[in-house]
């Protein structure tokens, strides 16, 4: 009798458990789409944000582009506050080394900045550029509004068709840019004979000079 009661008990538990599991299969509510944050123009200058390998390289490329007032190295695209070079290099913050480009839209357009972006990197390399590997070196183009996103989408699709390869760059809504440590700023300019600068940054800068000679600032 006790054994029969035990079987009834176990059977009841199994039925209740199965019902509970079936309820757990309800699909989760869709996550709210992250909306981009737009940076307000100041004194006629706009800001654009790019990640493509080491920020020393990207900063040097845009610093030498006509119409760009300044390029600043930093971090973006992650989920932590106040990222540092050390923390971002762990790959656990989600941040990539990025650059803030402050430009005059009357001299150079956002579209042309995108052209320069793709032309000065290996667009098919995933999670890095050249010798730099890891999610902190991945390629990202950040958009601040629908117009920018449409431009990026069109450029990326056109390039993919042209080379018949998948383009690695992510397209993400801009949220926040964190300025990097002082010693990272203007690194190519301050350390022209650094081995990394000579072997990695300079070749990327030469791509700008070769492909867009009319857009290169005269260096003093």
From TrEMBL:
Task: List the coiled-coil residues.
Answer: none
Judged by the first EC level, this protein's enzyme class is: oxidoreductase
Active site residues according to the UniProt entry: 54
Question: Key word Oxidoreductase present in the record?
Answer: yes
**What positions does the domain Peptide methionine sulphoxide reductase MsrA occupy?**
48-196
The family database entries (Pfam families) matched by this protein are listed as: PMSR
**GO MF annotation list:** peptide-methionine (S)-S-oxide reductase activity
Q: Does the keyword Transmembrane apply?
A: no
Task: State which Enzyme Commission number(s) the record gives.
Answer: 1.8.4.11
Q: Which InterPro entries match?
A: Met_Sox_Rdtase_MsrA_dom, Met_Sox_Rdtase_MsrA_sf
Listed PROSITE patterns: PROKAR_LIPOPROTEIN
Keyword annotations for this protein, in alphabetical order, are: Oxidoreductase
Instruction: Please give the start and end residues of each transmembrane region.
Output: none
Q: Which reaction does it catalyse?
A: [thioredoxin]-disulfide + L-methionine + H2O = L-methionine (S)-S-oxide + [thioredoxin]-dithiol; L-methionyl-[protein] + [thioredoxin]-disulfide + H2O = L-methionyl-(S)-S-oxide-[protein] + [thioredoxin]-dithiol
Question: Hey, which family's this protein in?
Answer: Belongs to the MsrA Met sulfoxide reductase family.
Q: What is this protein for, i.e. what is its function?
A: Has an important function as a repair enzyme for proteins that have been inactivated by oxidation. Catalyzes the reversible oxidation-reduction of methionine sulfoxide in proteins to methionine.
State what protein this is by name. Peptide methionine sulfoxide reductase MsrA
Q: Which organism is it from?
A: Aquimarina hainanensis
- The gene coding this protein: msrA
């Amino acid at each position: 009798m006790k054994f029969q009661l035990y079987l009834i008990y176990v059977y009841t538990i199994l039925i209740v458990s199965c019902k509970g599991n079936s309820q757990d299969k309800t699909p989760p509510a869709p996550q709210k789409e992250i909306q981009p944050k737009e940076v307000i123009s100041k004194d006629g200058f706009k800001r654009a944000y790019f990640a493509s390998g080491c920020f020393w390289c990207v900063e040097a490329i845009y610093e030498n582009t006509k119409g760009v007032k300044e390029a600043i190295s930093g971090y973006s695209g992650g989920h932590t506050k106040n990222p540092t070079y050390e923390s971002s290099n762990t790959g656990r913050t989600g941040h990539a080394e990025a650059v803030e480009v402050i430009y005059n839209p009357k001299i150079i357009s956002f579209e042309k900045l995108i052209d320069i972006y793709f032309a000065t990197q290996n667009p098919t390399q995933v999670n890095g550029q050249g010798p730099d590997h890891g999610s902190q070196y991945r390629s990202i183009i950040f958009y601040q509004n629908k117009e920018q996103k449409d431009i990026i989408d069109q450029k990326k699709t056109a390039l993919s068709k042209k080379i018949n390869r998948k383009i690695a760059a992510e397209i993400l809504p801009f949220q926040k840019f964190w300025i990097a440590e002082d010693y990272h700023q203007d690194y190519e300019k301050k350390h022209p004979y650094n081995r990394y600068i000579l072997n990695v940054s300079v070749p990327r800068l030469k791509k700008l000079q070769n492909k867009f000679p009319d857009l290169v600032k005269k260096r003093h």
